[in-house]
Amino acid sequence: MNTPEFPLPAADRLRIVLVGTQHPGNIGAAARALKTMGLARLVLVAPEQFPAEEATRRAAGADDLLADAPVVATLAEGVADCRYVLGCTARSRRVQLEEFEPRQAAARAVAMAAQGEVALVFGRERTGLTNEELQLCHAAVHIPANPEYSSLNLAAAVQVLAYELRLALRGQTPSPASESRHPDDAPASHAQLEGFFTQLGQTLDEIDFHKGRTPDSAMRKLRRLFLRADLSEQEVRLLRGVLADAQRMARLADGRT
């Protein structure tokens, strides 16, 4: 559980997600980085070696975080219940995302955690996050390291973000308005949004929206549009109802039932 020095709900809603970590020592060092900053939630996505003695050794007393860390097969599973997901990466490639520096990202993460679960995602040591994994994120975080030597160890990058999260949490004040949202305004979870995006892609195919063009570019732009819209659960249900009707009409036009 989180340290009582952060009594507000936001602290318990922040998680660090490590994707495809290759060296178990980096998992342990990341756990140590979190615990020194008063954070306690670590999620591991398809680590190459875990559990491992090296991870426990490098945790240096933070092995309770390792013991509590869920291990899942995909990033989508690791952030399924999240309200907001930040992907830590070098300058983004084909995936165009809003980009923050660590201090901005931490402030945003803590603010969003007042409404629901928030994840900060770190990729593999050598290759980082794939474009497909970045598409699951609402925004990107870039650490402005020395451009002549910008290679950061995974645990060092986690430490930078954990420190900024600590500063943001220490400066946080209760926000009654954000803590008392009407149930109809409950924010959509990551899994609910991904379900919507899947149905949206299927609908666009069924109505021949792409006209033979590759759907990837349009779907990337539509994802960014709807992620910026900050949809609630009720709004996602409404949009999915519209899509269901469009699918039904497309099937009728094709002579299907």
Distance between the termini: 52 Å
Largest sheet: 7 strands, parallel
Strand tally? 7
Please tally the helical runs, counting DSSP H or I stretches of 4 or more residues.
Answer: 12
* Strand percentage: 5-15%
Low-confidence stretches: 176-180
Q: Give the topology string: H per helix, E per strand.
A: HEHEHHEHEEHEHEHHHHH
Question: What is the average per-residue confidence, as pLDDT, rounded to a whole number?
Answer: 90
| Helix-strand category | alpha/beta
Helix content: 40-55%
**Shape estimate:** elongated
Strand order of the largest sheet: 3-2-1-6-4-7-5
Radius of gyration (Å): 20 Å
Features:
7 strands; 257 residues; single chain; 47% helix; 12% strand; 12 helices; elongated; seven-stranded parallel sheet
Protein architecture, described:
The chain is α/β, with parallel strands linked by helices and 257 residues long. The chain is built from 12 helices and 7 strands. It has helices at 9-12, 24-36, 53-59, 63-68, 75-78, 102-113, 131-134, 154-170, 176-179, 190-206, 216-228, 233-253, and strands spanning 14-19, 42-45, 71-72, 82-88, 98-100, 117-122, 139-141. It has a 7-stranded parallel sheet. Strand 1 (14-19), helix 2 and strand 2 (42-45) form a beta-alpha-beta unit. Helix 2 packs parallel to helix 8, helix 6 (102-113) crosses helix 8 (154-170) and helix 10 (190-206) packs parallel to helix 12 (233-253). The longest helix is centred in the last third of the chain and has 21 residues, at 233-253.
